[in-house]
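Board notes (copied after class):
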Amino acid sequence: MAAAFYVAASLLCDFAHALNLLMDDKPRMMAQSLTKQVTHLFRRCHPSSTQPAPESPQAPSVSEEAERDQEHEEEDSELPPVPQLQEADGDQEHEEEANELPPLPQPEDTKSSTQPAPESPQAPSVSEEAERDQEHEEEDSELPPVPQLQDADGDQEHEEEANELPPLPQPEDTKSICPGSAINPDPASAPAATPQPEAAKRKTSCSKSDGQRKKPKETKTELLLEKLRSLLSVGDPKQKYMLLAEIGQGASGTVYRARESDTGREVAIKQLKFLTTPVKRLLREILIPKENKHPNIVNYLESYRVNSHLWVVMEYMSGGSLAGLVRNVCMHDGQIAAVCRECLQGLAFLHSNQVIHRDIKSDNILLGMDGSVKLADFGLSTHTTPEKSRRRSMVGTPHWIAPEVAREEPYGPKVDIWSLGITAIEMVEGEPPYFDQRRHEAIKLIAQNGTPQLKNPRQHSPLLCDFLNCCLEVDENRRWSAEELLKHPFLQSAEPLSSLTPLIMAAKQLNEEKSRH
């Protein structure tokens, strides 16, 4: 009887163990509870049993413990990595690839333990959450970058507003004076503004300030053009003046001798290229002689716009330039002193009116047949103010520039005094110092060598040499001003201006002979 009961208990334990492996959580727990009860009942009935059969009841308990451990491990391994998925929304694609790795091979006896359905209720929740995260990601990625687009549009609008200033009223034949101007688009056709985030508004406000910084430059150019248009005379200069001959040519244009049809008066017309000459230079060519009337400054008459050129009408100096004189004839000290005195009178007047010529040389000093001397060509001139009395730009003709200009240091009106000293050397020797050197090499020598010396100083008076030293002092602070040089003893030896007439006539005759040959 006891043996039969033992066999029945063993079979019941084996049956309960099988149910434990095949069933879900709740039936499995019931089977485990039933196994424990049967085992307990068997031990109460046979407390001192030492038969071989106890191995059977112990085996389920060991297997039970192993199964419980395995179940806990499987439950831990089957838990979805939800926190990682939630934290790495941006890397959803990589997470899905990692989660889709094939499962490791399992022994046959454990395949049945991985088949229960506890994963099935959890897997949908994980995939649903991942799908929801992925949908949010896709929605975010599909949103257009509205603030950036609005900002860029704002910047472009302000740049266009700065660059598309409307042209000022002008005659039909002067419309090309302002290149690149355009008419502003109609405000009614502009798209309506869309709300912008705060950051975009701040950026747009910055772009507005950029546009506002650009506008003054454009406005200044327009003001200069308007000023230039206001100086132009109305009418056709070709009907008023008849061009006779070309008398000079430079980088910015050509000078012609012309005759006024009504009066028969001879004038000089300087034709400047409108499209290639800076507006400021065009204005200087007109304004400085127009606003600074002086016996030693060439007289401005009027100006016209003719197609692509600006015609500047000036008084005609029949004696030509000083360059034509010094290259053909020799001048003695009294004649040099007369020319220097006339030039210094013109420079003193310009400097008192805060004007620096910046291009004094023999080509820009004009002579009349009566010996009159006048300064000309004000395209490189500049105005100074008490607040801005110094300049730094390297402007002028290389062989005549002062050392401070060659070194690109700040300079003032005394650069004209140095240039006049070099022009005096021209009158003595026929050419400026370093004239046989290239332009860049001459500039380097001027900056390094200091005061140039005459080739034969003993052949000239000490007063001339001292006058040159006062003009060509390297230290600008020690260099004499125009007013001071007008009191120099050398100028007391100046001959009458009429003494220049024979030299002018001789130079003209030589030029005519050269032109014939």
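Comment from the instructor: The longest strand covers residues 241-249. Strands lie at 241-249, 253-260, 266-273, 300-306, 309-315, 320-321, 355-356, 365-367, 373-375, 382-383.
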